[in-house]
Specification:
The protein is of the alpha/beta class. About 50% of the residues lie in helices and about 10% in strands.
Length: about 325
C-alpha cells in the first residue's frame, strides 16, 4: 500500500482567502489575480492565463495543487500533440498477447474477443483522461501548459473537455468527470488561441510585476539574497524591461540571477559581476551583446542613483 493521501483543503470562500491561499504557497499575487481565481474556483470555470514566459503562470497551478492538497495533472503542450499523447491510447502489445492467448485456447468468437481487448484493462490513460477520474483528495488540478504551442485541431478537441468535462472513446463510450477538475490553461501568446476556447474560460493577463511586488517575490523566494543586492537586482531588471530586447527577463530569470549572484558572494551589483552573469538573466546572444559593457555600466549607475535618492528621500 502507498502512503496515505493528505487531506484536501476546502476552496476559498472569498477573494481575501484566495490571496491567503496563494501566500501559503509562497506566491505573491495581485488582488486582480486572486479575484479571477476565486471566481474560477467558485463557479467551476477553467482559468485561462496569458502572458510572457517566466511571469509565474504555471506556478499558479502548482501552488493551487499544493495548498488545496489536490493531485496536479500536467499536460505539457507541444507542436504535433495528439489524442494518443494527451488523452489515451490502447496498449497494443498487451492486446496482441490477449489475442494470441485466446487463439491458443480455441476462442473463436471474434465479437467477444473484440469486446475483451477493448476493455479499460488495456487503456493507457494520459493527462486529460486522468484528470476526469475520481480522487479521494477531491478533484485534481489540471494544468494545460503552453497551449499556444499546439495546433488548432487539438484546440478544437479540447472544447468537449472544457465544456462538459467528458471524453468520448469510440470503443468504450463517453467518460465524464463525477466532479470537474480545477483547470488552469496557460499561453505565452506565440499565437492567438481561438475565441471558442477562450469563451469557455475566465481570462487573466499575467504581467511583469512592478518593482515593489518583484522585490517581495525575491524576499519570499530567495530570502538568502542580501537586501541591498535584491533591491539592485530588481531595479536593474526593471530597467532592462524598458530596453528594446528580443526577450525581456521574467520573474524566473530575476530569481535565478539573484541566487547566482548570492552563490558568488555578491552583496551588491558591480559592472564585472553583471557582465559575467548576464547569461543567467538574458537568453539571446544579441541581447547580451547589446547590454554587456558600457550599457550595463550605464544602467547600473542609474539604478544606484535612483536607489540612493530613494533612501535619502
Amino acid at each position: 500500500m502507498g502512503e496515505p493521501s493528505p487531506l484536501s483543503v476546502p476552496v476559498p470562500v472569498s477573494v481575501d482567502e484566495t490571496l491567503d491561499l496563494l501566500a501559503r504557497g509562497n506566491y505573491v499575487g495581485e488582488r486582480s489575480l486572486a479575484t479571477v481565481l476565486f471566481l474560477s474556483l467558485k463557479l467551476g470555470r477553467p482559468l485561462f492565463l496569458e502572458g510572457e514566459a517566466g511571469v509565474g503562470k504555471t506556478e499558479i497551478a502548482k501552488v493551487l495543487a499544493q495548498t488545496l492538497g489536490r493531485r496536479l495533472v500536467r499536460l505539457q503542450c507541444y507542436e504535433g500533440l495528439d489524442v494518443s499523447a494527451a488523452v489515451y491510447e490502447w496498449n497494443y502489445p498487451r492486446q496482441m498477447v490477449e489475442i494470441r492467448v485466446a487463439e491458443a485456447a480455441g476462442a473463436g468468437d471474434r465479437a467477444s474477443l473484440t469486446s475483451d481487448i477493448f476493455d479499460e484493462r488495456f487503456l493507457i490513460e494520459r493527462p486529460l483522461l486522468q484528470a476526469l477520474r475520481p480522487d479521494d483528495r477531491g478533484a485534481p488540478v489540471l494544468l494545460i501548459d503552453e497551449l499556444d504551442r499546439t495546433d488548432e485541431p487539438f484546440e478544437a478537441f479540447l472544447l468537449e473537455v472544457l465544456s462538459d468535462y467528458q471524453i468520448t472513446i469510440p470503443e468504450l463510450g463517453t467518460i465524464a468527470a463525477a466532479t470537474p477538475p480545477i483547470v488552469i490553461v496557460t499561453s505565452n501568446r506565440t499565437r492567438e488561441i481561438h475565441d471558442a476556447l477562450k469563451r469557455r474560460c475566465f481570462y487573466h493577463w499575467v504581467d511583469y510585476p512592478n518593482a515593489e511586488r518583484e522585490l517581495e517575490i525575491l524576499r519570499v523566494k530567495a530570502p538568502q539574497a542580501p537586501a541591498k543586492l535584491s533591491a539592485e537586482v530588481v531595479s536593474f531588471v526593471q530597467a532592462l524591461r524598458k530596453e528594446d530586447l528580443f526577450k525581456l527577463p521574467g520573474i524566473a530569470e530575476t530569481l535565478d540571477w539573484a541566487e547566482a549572484l548570492t552563490q558568488l558572494d555578491k552583496v551588491a551589483l558591480d559592472p564585472q559581476a553583471i557582465d559575467d552573469t548576464l547569461g543567467v538573466l538574458l537568453k539571446y546572444q544579441d541581447d547580451i551583446a547589446k547590454i554587456q559593457g558600457s550599457e550595463a555600466a550605464r544602467l547600473l549607475n542609474e539604478v544606484k542613483s535612483e536607489l540612493t535618492g530613494a533612501v535619502v528621500a
